[in-house]
Amino acid sequence: MNLLSGIRVLDAATNIAGPYGASLLADLGAEVIKIEPVAGDPMRAYPPACDGTTTQFAAVNHDKRYLTLDLRSEEGRGELHRLVAGADVLVQNARAGHEAKLGLDAESCHDANPRLIHATIAAFHPADGDRPGYDMLVQGESGLLDQTGEPDRPPSRIGASAIDHVTGLWLAFGVLAALRGPRERETVRVSMLDAAVGLLNEKVSATIATGEAPQRMGAGTSVTTPHGAFATADGYIVIGAATDAAFAKLATVLGPPLHGDERFRSQSGRLAHRAEVEGAVTAALAPFGTDHWMSVLGEAGIAAGRVSTLPEAIERHRAFSATGLRSVDGSERIEVVAPAVSFGSHDWPVLPLPGGPGADNEAVLGAPAVR
How far is CA 260 from CA 35, 246, 280, 284, in A? Predict the structure, then answer.
């Protein structure tokens, strides 16, 4: 995929959000040069390790060139700004107030190249200063943690670094838009906290309108029922009967007491008797396994999905996804999830194995990496 051929991106970010956003630009054909501290990006140390790298690092740092620079030194900052002079985009996530010390601030970078798009990822709001932040902290402050989990249990973390990844998506989105603009000392800034609140989009609007904070409901939702995960004889299934018409189909399949009870005909009635409705669904599903119900509900046109383990989901993704997984040349064990967008008949190609810290210093800078 060469949609961004000729675009050079400097990725001076660490951890997940910034590098993931930069990797999306690499996926679209940009040349991405990763600039790491001499010790390397901390992601290189996160297990599991195999074939000279780690799966965590490869997942968000594939298809880049790998440099090390000591940005705490005048020489390192000078080398950075020489690279900036020939770049289109710089991605960085240094804490507020620390960018200038490393030469990563917008002013000095734009002095080196006024046409540079200076893209920053921050954890919190500008008023929060230089507070360090990670996905889990942002889930907490955004309200997501409070909205996730069972009502009678402590708040739960989303089972993925979702905020890191959606922040990276917003970064790539902003950079792509900025590349179409005038490019006059342009800056793009994405806050992880803003991205997280955005995931609560419709809940934010409802809370403002009603003055009532929604309560966490496990796999359920406050606006419709039955709409959640229910136990079967051998696992769990998700059923989405979100409309009166969909519920009528479900009630016909599952029978009494759901079928024929006038209290359940409308959404408002079902919400008023949520415990009875969901209890009846659970009781009806209990005698048979998930495969049985997937078949029966599918034939009736009722939205349903199995609750898969991650290994099960991976194998289904491998077998049926339009985009699938990308293998890594030089490794029999590392595979990376391909971007979720497909372009015509294009297949996402095999990726090179990520190089070590400073692997491309000599090729790019004409000098070996400092150890």
Answer: 65, 15, 13, 15
Catalytic residue among 135, 164, 291, 329: 164
CATH code for the domain of 71: 3.40.50.10540
pLDDT score at 201: 95
Q: Is 29 left (phi over 0), alpha (psi -120 to 50) or beta?
A: left
Can you name the residues that pair with 188 across neighbouring β-strands?
A: 119
Instruction: Let me know whether 349 and 265 are in one domain.
Output: no
State the average pLDDT over residues 157-185: 97
> Is residue 329 one of the residues assigned to a domain?
no
**Domain residue limits at 257:** 227-307
In a domain, 313, yes or no: no
Active site residue 261: no
Report if pTM > 0.85: yes
| Cα-Cα end-to-end distance for the chain | 35
Q: For 17-55, how does the pLDDT look when each residue is reduced to its tens digit (9 = 90+)?
A: 999 999 999 999 999 999 999 999 999 999 999 998 999
